[in-house]
Give the backbone structure.
Amino acid sequence: MIEHAGQSPFPRRHVHLDFHTGPAVPDVGSEFDGDLFVRAFRDAQVESVTVFAKCHHGHLYFATERPERHPNLVDGLDLLGQQIEALHGAGIRAPIYVSVQCDEYAANLHPEWVVLTPQLEQLRRVFTNIRPVTVEAFTAGWQILDMSSPYQEYLAAQVEEILSRFGPVDGMFFDMCWDQPSCSKWAMEGMRGAHLDPTDAAARSDYANSVALSYMERFSQLVEPNLTKGSPTGVWFNSRPRTALDRERRFLRHVEIEALPTGSWGYDYLPYIGRLVRHVGLPVLSQTGRFHRSWGDVASLKAPAALRYDCTRALTYGHACSVGDLLPATGKPGDAVYRLIAAAYEYVKACEPFVEAGSPVVDVALVADPALGDEPGPAMIGAVKLLQRLRQQFDVVPAGSSLDAYAVIVIPDSTLVSGALAAEIRSQVTADKAVIVAAAAVPATPEGDDLMAALGVRRAGVSPFSTVFFAPTPEGPLQPATSMPIRVHGESLLLEPLPGTQVLADMVNPFFERTYEHFSGHSYTPPGASSGYGAVFGRGRIFVLAVPLFAGVAEEANPEYERVLGACLERALPAPALRAGGPRHLETAVVQAGEATVVHLLSYLPSRLGYELDLVFDPFPLVDVDIEVRMRSVPRRVSQQPAGKELDWAYQGGYVTTKVTVLDGHTMVVLEP
């Protein structure tokens, strides 16, 4: 378990137990047995289970006189109460789940409480993607409740009964809590009362955010006095943007990241969000699922290698692990499900002693714009991919944070550099920090022009071409692997070097802009003459990009983009925390755990094995991979864990060098001083 000051240990191995069971399903809980129920979790090394009080259908699963109790829950069965009792008897925590904006029972009973669109249509959605998809009335989908309507009082009464029956509780998980604009009479009155224009979409969004913050504060204050003494988990409001945690952390004791890779989040989501939430200073629970695809795919199992990958990946970010499951309507856990979870959690448990209370070792700050939300776009994702592939150790840092602790600062195209961030960048440049900036991130304002001058370039306009080419200059450090100019698509800026700034790569124009009536070849116009402007600039340890290379890494993974950016990073950070060979997909993390330095090596390769579906079925073996770890002194022992294998090593020039073989996807190299 992860220790946090002033709190009891935070559980590392968790199961999130869904139970969205419609009213037509018979014999609910008919096979529930407390001993069998808890044995599944105990044998799978689980330390905490989120159990369900209320599902999306709006049904309750405990002994209550309220009419929302599931109509086919076995007579006399207090399913929630008996689950909590069984789990607590085994020393397993049991936070309680409540659905918020999805409640079919309430929506059918009070259709006037359902969210109204600007067309005055009731909102019905399915969740087949990270974003909900609106569907028509004759498609199975959830009706969305308006939290500015009397539904909020209805929900509060349910929560109060849960707390009175089961308090003190280990925590509460409120689901489906996004900002939901509505044009109901209650929302319209609320907006007018707040002096907001209901006809303005932005005003409706602002009001929806204020409603969400209001009920989050309300329910947090309701639950907090009823928490188990020293509870580390507290309250969690799911479906909120993690980029809003700075404003919303006052309601929280921990953070949860819902990220089922095959459930439309993809394998690129956690590397971004997982690093972004580290700055909040709260324990983090990373949730995957046992399903082959996503929630609702209940009659399927994730491949064992995929679940182990998800869990060890969370471990490398310093997160606790959570696996989503859906309990069968009978109330009996699936044997195959918990054999699968046990295999992953037994390995995680074996790894935990080596990373207990660890903190990441990072050199690079990748600065993000919180206004972009949890899906920051290709430039940010490309920057994450690039830094991972180059074995750089980095945080994703919200704009406005101090950057003093980092040796290198990276600003992708999508991060707006203005105000506090512009001042921070100027401060870092003055302090002779290494900075890599996409010029498109700096607005064309007097403030932006001043910053560009401090970075060593002058803005001369925007390229008129949708495709340009870059060609490293003969005297520069970015020597090309081939003699041809390399194409890059997207908006490029026209920049000129100021005295002392070197053009590392020229910008080459196409012969002409491609149109339907004026084109050459299959896809883009070939390169013509030099534009007279630069594509990449260097000034000491400052690098400026006039072309959108970060987005290109995400969209195309052109190795030439990575080679140029990698050369900039090598000059910016000649002595990184880690150097490692091996294939490009290898993921690494360096952790300081007490006096030991721990290096995670993670080798899995998601492949497009299904239609629009990346899957993992096997680890990718590594044999005799060279690694170099920066250390201030000679270690007394270097070992490979949790296998307990001693490694041969050498120490020279501030680095420990060794070779590592990884056949099962993950290992830790532990260097003890």
Residues 364-572 form a domain with the Rossmann fold fold (CATH 3.40.50.880). Confidence is low (pLDDT under 50) at residues 1-8.
